[in-house]
Specification:
The structure is a homodimer of 574-residue chains. Chain A is an alpha+beta fold and 574 residues long. Among the domains of chain A are: 132 residues, Butyryl-CoA Dehydrogenase, subunit A, domain 2 (Beta Barrel), CATH 2.40.110.20; 130 residues. Chain A is 56% helix and 11% strand. In chain A, strands 3, 4, 5, 6, 7, 8 and 9 form a seven-stranded mixed β-sheet that branches. In chain A, helix 1 packs across helix 12, helix 6 packs antiparallel against helix 12 and helix 18 packs parallel to helix 21. Chain A is globular and about 80 Å long. The interface between A and B is large, with 70 and 70 residues.
C-alpha cells in the first residue's frame, strides 16, 4: 500500500538555484570557485537517486524488525549493513570533507540537502552516519597528530562510524553533571593516554554491525577537574584498537525500547578502564564538541522538514485515491483532496516545507560563508545568522515535523492509525527530534536568554536587517526586534522573564522568518507546478502566520504585567 | 519506574459537587430522587478504588504483550479476562442501565466519570466495554420483544459484550457507501430473520476472550434498499447462537497492527450468511444507532481528558524528582518543576483537565435531563446543549489529549521517548481519539454546517445564553454567536464557506466555553490545593485563551475575502 518516499529534487533545486542563488554565492568562496548550477544539479540528482533507490525502501523493515541486542552485540535490520557499505563506498559521507582526507570538498549546503533526503527516506538508518561529519570536524580541528593519523582517514570516508557520548543517567540537558572519569595512564599501547570509567546513555549507534569499527567521542572529567561544564575534557575511545583487538573496556549494556526510530540502536554504554586518546585541551571538551553544534542542529531542523515532506507526500497521494462524502457543491462522493479540511492540512505542510527550506538552505550556505567568506564582515554576518537562525529552525521545524505529520495521519482517517500506510511510523519517528540535540525548550532559552537579551537584541536586529524584507514581512521582523529590546530592558529587574517568554519569542521569530521566506519563493515561482506554490502561499497567509500576532500578544501581556508590578514595587520602596 | 495512574477522585467530585451542584440537579429528575452527595461520593470512591487497583496496573502489559490473533481467535493480554469478569460481576457496566434489566439505574454522569477514569487508567482495556451501554440502549429502544429477550439481559449486566459494525474498507466517514447485504430468510432457528454477507473493518472487540459471547450490531442493506445512508438497516448477529452453537457465518479474519491501543483488538470481520435478527425499522438503521451518538462522543471527549490527566500525573511526578540546570535565580541545579518551560506545560494541561471536566460533566448531566427533565423546556435546553457541546468537546479534548500528552512527554526529555515511563504509550494510544467516533474534522462540520448555519446560530445563541456568562467570558461567547450569524448570512452565496471555517469555528467555541468553565471553578475553588487552581487559571489566561482571538481573526479574514468577492461579482453581474 505504502509507497516509499521519493526525493523531490526539482523542488529542492529550485530553492537553492532560483530562490537563493546558491551557485553564485558559493562560487564566491575560494574553495568552491568551480561550483555551479550544473555541478549542483548533478550531485542532487545522484543523491536523490541513491536515497530513493537504496535507502527509502528499508524504512519499513527498519521499523518492524528493528535492532536486536544480544550479549553486548547489536544486529541491525536486514539490508542495513549493505546499504551503509554502498553509501560510504559511493563517497556520500565524505561529501563536505577535505580533499586531503579523501573527501569531495563540496559545500555544506549539499550535505544538508543529502541529509534532509536521507532523513525523509529513512530516519532510523540516517541516525548511523548522523554525527559522522561532526566527529570528523572535531578530530580534524582538535585532535593531535597521532589521533588524526589513527582515526581521521577512515572517519573522513565513513568507512568507520562515530558516536558522541555525552548524556549520563543524571546529566541530560545539564552536561555540567557529567561524572565519567578519565585517568591518565602511561605505557598504554598505540599512544593511548587515558583510561575511561563511567556510564553513558542514549548513545545513538553506540554498537552496531554497519561498520568494522566505531569511534566513540566521550566527554569525561580529568582528576581534579573543576565541577560543572567547564571541567569536561574530550576523549576518543574506539571499539577496536589500532592493532585490531577489541578495546576491552567498551561495553554496550542494552538498547532502549523506544516510541519510534526502531532502526537506530539507542545504547547504554559502559566504559571500564577503556583505552582512550585525549582530544584538545584539558577542560575544554565541551567547546571542542560545540564546534559542530550549529551544523548538527541544522541537520535536526532538516530532519523535521524532511519527515514533514515525507508525510505530506503520503497524505497527498492518499487524498488523490480515496473518495468519501461530497465536498461542497459536489453531487457524488468526492476525492478527499477536494474537502477543505484536507486541503488545509496538505497546503499548510507544503508551506512549511517550501518556506522552511529557504531558511534551512540559507543557513547551510552561511555555514560555509562563516568559514570561507573572503572578508571579515561577510564571515561575521554569516556567523550571526547561523547562531540565531539555528535554534529557531531546530525548534520550529521539528515541532512542525511532528505536529504536521500527525495532521497528515489524520488525512488517512482510521487507516492512518494502522501500520500499513507507514504514516504512523513517521509520527513516532519524528517525535524524538523535539528532544535530542537540545530540547526545543533549551533552544528557546539559547536564543532569548543567551543570544538576544545579553546584547539587547542588537545582533538579532542586524541579522534581520540583512534580509531586506518589505511590507508585512518587514513589519513582523521589526516587531520581534522591538520586543527583543523591551524584554532586554525588563530582564535585569525580572530574572525569570526571558525564561517565561522564551518559547513564544522563538515561535514569533520562526513565523516572522517563515513569512519572509514564503515571500522569497513566491517572488521566484518555479515554471512548473505553479498552483502548488499558490496553495502554500495561501496556507501561509490564512493559517500559519496568524499565530504571529497571538505569540506577540502573549509576550506583551506578560511583559506588561511584570512592568506594572515592577513600577508598583519601586513606588512602594520609594 | 512508571507509577500506574491513580484516579483523583477528590478533584472529580469537587467539579460535580461544588462547581456543578450535580446532586441537586440530578435529584430533581424523578428516577434519581434519592441521589445525593453521599451516594455520589460512595460510587466515585468505589469506582476509583476498582479502577486504580484492578485496571490501571494492566496498562503496560496491554501495550507490550498486546492482543494475539491465531486462526480466527483473539487472545487478550494476560490478566484482561479476569479484570473484565471482576468488572461486570461488581456491577460496573450496569451503572446507568434500567433496574428492570438488572442495572443500577444511576445517572449517566456517574457512568461518564467511571469511563473517564477507566480510559485514563487503561485506554486499551476500556475499549472492550466502550460501546456496551450504547448497544444496550439501542436494543432496549429499538429491539423487538424476541431480540430483547434473547440478548438484553446479558448485555445489561455486561456478562456479554457488544460491537458496532459500521465501517467497511470503502466506507469510513461516509457510511452511505456501506455495501454489506442482509437477505431475509425463513425457517431460521431461534426466530432469526436475515442472513448477513459483507466485510467490516476497524471493529473494536470484534473477537476476544473476555466474555463468553459477543453481540455484533451490524449496519447492512436490505434487498432493494435505497442507495446512501437512508438505505441502511440494523441487525444483531451474535458470535454464539442462543443454543450455544457458533454462528458459523461470523469470522474474524485479522487484527490490525496499530500505532497504539495494542490491548484492543481492531478486527476485520467477515459475515458469510451469518444468522441475524433485525432491529428497528427497515432503512432506519442509522437513526437507531445515532441514538447513542451523543453519549458515545462524550465518552471519547472524556477519553481525551482522562489520557491528558494521566499524562499530567506522570509528568508532574517526574518534574518533582528530576534535577537539571538552574532555574532563574537558583544557585544549584533545580527540580525541573521549577523551570518556567516545564511549569507552562504542566499548568496548561491542568487547565484543560479542570475546565474541561466542568463542560464534560455538565453535558453528562444534560444527557439525563434531556430524557428525564420534568418540563419540556428543560428537556429541550438539555438536548440543545448536548447537540452543540458534544462535537466541540469531542474534537477539542481529544486534540488536547494528544498534543498535551506529547508536551508531557517533553518534560521527560530523552526519557520520555523510551518505553520505561509509560508516557509515550499515552501519546500513541491517544492519537486514535482524534479519528474514531467521527474524525475531528467531521465533528467540526457537524457543528457548523449541520447545527449552526441552518438556523443562523439561533440554537447556539440560546445554549450560550443559558450559561449566564459575565465579563470576558460573555464577550467571547457573544463574538462566537455574532460570527455564527455572519457566516450563516454569507453561506447561501458561498457554499464552501462553512467547510473552510468549520475547524476554526469549533475551536473558537471550545475556547470560549473553556474560558467560561474556568471561571466557574475559579469561583468555587476547593478547600485544599488552592495553588493548583491558581496555576490552572493562570495558564488559561496567559497561554490557552489567546488562541481565541487568533481563530476569530482567521475566520474574519476569510469571511471578509469572500464577502468582498461576492459584492464584486454582484456588481459585475448588475
Amino acid at each position: 500500500m505504502s509507497q516509499p518516499y521519493r526525493p523531490d529534487t526539482a523542488r529542492i533545486e529550485h530553492v537553492l538555484d532560483a530562490v537563493l542563488q546558491a551557485p553564485s554565492t558559493l562560487s564566491a568562496l575560494a574553495p568552491f570557485a568551480d561550483y555551479d548550477s550544473a555541478l549542483q544539479h548533478q550531485v542532487i540528482e545522484a543523491a536523490g537517486e541513491f536515497v530513493g533507490r537504496t535507502i527509502a525502501p528499508l524504512s519499513r523493515v527498519g521499523d518492524e524488525v528493528g535492532c536486536r541486542f544480544e550479549a553486548g552485540v547489536v544486529t541491525m535490520p536486514p539490508g542495513f549493513r549493505q546499504a551503509y557499505q554502498a553509501f560510504w563506498q559511493a563517497g556520500w559521507p565524505a561529501l563536505s570533507h577535505a580533499a586531503e582526507d579523501g573527501g569531495q570538498a563540496l559545500p555544506m549546503a549539499l550535505e544538508a540537502v543529502l541529509y534532509e533526503m536521507l532523513s525523509a527516506a529513512n530516519h532510523g538508518w540516517t541516525m548511523a552516519p548522523g554525527v559522522l561529519s561532526g566527529a570528523y570536524e572535531c578530530l580534524r580541528h582538535h585532535g593531535g597528530q597521532s589521533v588524526r593519523d589513527l582515526f581521521l582517514p577512515k572517519l573522513a570516508t565513513g568507512q568507520w562510524l562515530a558516536t558522541m557520548c555525552l548524556t549520563e543517567p543524571h546529566a541530560g540537558s545539564d552536561l555540567g553533571q557529567v561524572s565519567t572519569r578519565a585517568t591518565p595512564a602511561e605505557d598504554l599501547p598505540h599512544g593511548a593516554s587515558h583510561l575511561i570509567d563511567g556510564s553513558k546513555i542514549f548513545i545513538s549507534g553506540g554498537e552496531h554491525d554497519l561498520t568494522d569499527n566505531i569511534i566513540h567521542l566521550v566527554l569525561a572529567r580529568l582528576p581534579g577537574a573543576p565541577a560543572g561544564p567547564k571541567g569536561l575534557s574530550l576523549f576518543v575511545a574506539p571499539k577496536f584498537l589500532p592493532d585490531g583487538r577489541r578495546n576491552a573496556g567498551v561495553h554496550c549494556d542494552r538498547i532502549e525500547e523506544k516510541m519510534g526510530l526502531h532502526a537506530s540502536p539507542t545504547c547504554a554504554m559502559r566504559f571500564e578502564a577503556a583505552m582512550a586518546w585525549q582530544v584538545g585541551q584539558p577542560h575544554r571538551g565541551l567547546a571542542a564538541m560545540f564546534i559542530m553544534m550549529n551544523a548538527a542542529r541544522l541537520h535536526v531542523a532538516l530532519q523535521g522538514l524532511g519527515l514533514l515532506d515525507a508525510a505530506h507526500q503520503k497524505a497527498a497521494a492518499y487524498a488523490q485515491e480515496r473518495r468519501q462524502m461530497r465536498a461542497p457543491g459536489a453531487s457524488q462522493p468526492s476525492l478527499i483532496a477536494e474537502h477543505p479540511a484536507v486541503r488545509r492540512i496538505l497546503w499548510t505542510q507544503r508551506a512549511w516545507v517550501d518556506a522552511g527550506r529557504v531558511l534551512a538552505y540559507r543557513t547551510a550556505i552561511a555555514l560555509d560563508q562563516a568559514r570561507l567568506h573572503p572578508d571579515a564582515q561577510g564571515r561575521e554576518a554569516a556567523q550571526r545568522w547561523c547562531a540565531l537562525a539555528t535554534p529557531i529552525m531546530k525548534a520550529a521545524f521539528t515541532a512542525q515535523g511532528f505536529a504536521g505529520a500527525s495532521e497528515c495521519l489524520q488525512v488517512f482517517g482510521g487507516h492512518g492509525y494502522v501500520r500499513d500506510w507507514g504514516i504512523e511510523q513517521i509520527v513516532r519517528d519524528a517525535r524524538v527530534t523535539l528532544i535530542y540535540e537540545g530540547t526545543n525548550e533549551i533552544q528557546a532559552l539559547d536564543l532569548l536568554a543567551r543570544k538576544v537579551v545579553p546584547d539587547g537584541g542588537t545582533q538579532l536586529a542586524l541579522a534581520f536587517a540583512d534580509l531586506k524584507a518589505k511590507g508585512d514581512d518587514a513589519r513582523r521582523l521589526d516587531r520581534v526586534v522591538e520586543l527583543a529590546r523591551r524584554i532586554s530592558w525588563a530582564a535585569p529587574d525580572h530574572a525569570d522573564l526571558p525564561a517565561w517568554l522564551a518559547d513564544d519569542f522563538l515561535r514569533a521569530c520562526a513565523l516572522a522568518l517563515l513569512g519572509w521566506a514564503g515571500s522569497c519563493f513566491r517572488a521566484r515561482p518555479p515554471a512548473i507546478d505553479a498552483d502548488r506554490w499558490e496553495e502554500a502561499a495561501h496556507a501561509l497567509q490564512y493559517w500559519v502566520l496568524p499565530e504571529f500576532e497571538m505569540r506577540v500578544g502573549i509576550m506583551e501581556q506578560r511583559r506588561a504585567t511584570v512592568a506594572t508590578k515592577g513600577q508598583a514595587q519601586k513606588a512602594a520602596a520609594a
